[in-house]
Amino acid sequence: MDKKYSIISNSPAETIAFGKKLAELINVPALILLNGDLGTGKTLITKAAVSALGYQGDVTSPTFNLVQEYQAQVEIIHMDLYRLDRSEELLEIGFEDYLNREAVIFIEWPELALSLIPADFIFINIEKLSDNQREITVRGEGKMSSLLIERLNQEC
Ligand SMILES: Nc1ncnc2c1ncn2[C@@H]1O[C@H](COP(=O)(O)OP(=O)(O)OP(=O)(O)O)[C@@H](O)[C@H]1O
Ligand SMILES: [Mg+2]
Asked: What family does this belong to (predicted)?
């Protein structure tokens, strides 16, 4: 079985379209890890997905306070762990409680959190191919990602 979905995005608009599709195809709860260098499109995907999930306000990157919460038809949690120094800090922000919520969770820069991540998750890798081109790959472990990958592959 194909456990991977991959597309080339040629513009921010195509990446936004991917984020929207992602929002349409996930089940709740969902844990989505976004991996990729600075400025590859992790926040762009999250913003598009948060809007598609029905949140109408501004979505800003939570770099300084690590976590942002949004209430739409579903509860949405957006974390950006770029400024995290030690994984112990995750316990201070109640990381494990967030994971237990019936929510859609997006985590940018998830490296330091990996030891606390449960076995079922969606892993999105973004690679910059050129100024405007990105390769977006969805992998993961567990039911959550295999269902999503199946649905994404059926769409095209
Ligand atoms: N095909 C593309 N897909 C996504 N972003 C693109 C693409 N082409 C150009 N860009 C630009 O790349 C930038 C992506 O910014 P974004 O804030 O989403 O990155 P990020 O991965 O969240 O970075 P950071 O690690 O700093 O949080 C935007 O300025 C966007 O316009
Ligand atoms: Mg970002």
From this structure: Belongs to the TsaE family.
Query: For atom 23 of ligand 1, which residue has the closest CA?
Result: 39
Percentage with pLDDT > 90 across the chain = 85
Please say whether the beta carbons of 60 and 81 come within 8 A.
Answer: no
Which pairing describes strands 133-141 and 121-130: parallel, antiparallel, or unpaired?
A: antiparallel
- pLDDT-derived band at 2, boundaries 50, 70, 90: low
pLDDT digits (tens, 9 = 90+) for 6-35: 999 999 999 999 999 999 999 999 999 999
Environment class of 57 (CB within 10 Å of its CB; exposed 0-12, middle 13-18, buried 19+): exposed
145 Cβ below 6 A of ligand 1: no
- For the entire predicted model, the pTM comes to 0.96
Q: Which ligand is nearest to the CA of 9?
A: 1
Q: Stretch 96-109: mean pLDDT, rounded?
A: 96
4-155 CATH fold: Rossmann fold (3.40.50)
Name which residue sits closest to atom 30 of ligand 1, judged by CA. Answer: 12
Domain regions of the chain by residue span: 4-155
**Which atom of ligand 1 has the smallest separation from the CA of 15?**
3
